[in-house]
Design a protein that fits this description.
The chain is of the alpha/beta class. It is built from eight helices and seven strands; from the N terminus they run E-E-E-H-E-H-E-E-H-H-H-E-H-H-H. The model has no long low-confidence stretch (mean pLDDT 90).
Amino acid sequence: MSKQILTNGKNISIDVNNKVKKTVIIVSHERSGTHFLMNSISKCQDTYTNNWFDFDPNVSHSSNVNFYFKDSVQNLCDQMYSMKCSSIIKSHHHYKFFKDIDKKNIIFFYIYRNPYDTLKSFWNYINYLNWWEGPKNTTFKDFVYSEPEGMMMRYQNGQENSILSRWENNVNSWINASRQHKNIHIFKYSDLKNNYASQIDRISKILNCDVQTYEKPERNNYLKYDAKLKVSSDEENLVRYLLRRYNHLN
């Protein structure tokens, strides 16, 4: 394993490995277990690393990628593949951002989590940040039904009626795409949490690599902040009731 510089208008250091057969991209809605999956993949095998590349228009190393132009996204993916990039690529984008690119040299992992826990964590995260990432509502229920705003909109393919519909459309876009493309693999956070060994075996099969360990990554490797906002029992019961139609996605 070594490091190379990705030429993208900036000097970007990525890990490379001759054993790489495909570029790995991990996608999710924010706060869905993204880093849990990334760190699990990097820990369980010896090819792909957690020196991850953030596929994000607001991160400086991605600033020369036009995320709304298919050829620009394709060029970045082609560079990663030709260099045998072993750095995991991370994204929170709706599937439409990848819809029209050539995906034959990419393995996508999409992880989702039940909407209550995802959006509760997202609500805390948004309020923790000191910039305008999204609506900073004082109650969880108001947040769930607020229109997206601020920097969070960079991952959307259009305006959404609410944070909840944004989550739903992000998840469904990838689940539907996985039915058409065999290289898009859907993972549930609950499965990774509760059936870890079987999910590592599944990852190993997808990547065609040997399992090095079934040990989970340390939680402090992916918990980025302390949740300060609390939900009352009455509000929790109300929001869970309102979200009951998504129970099949738990």
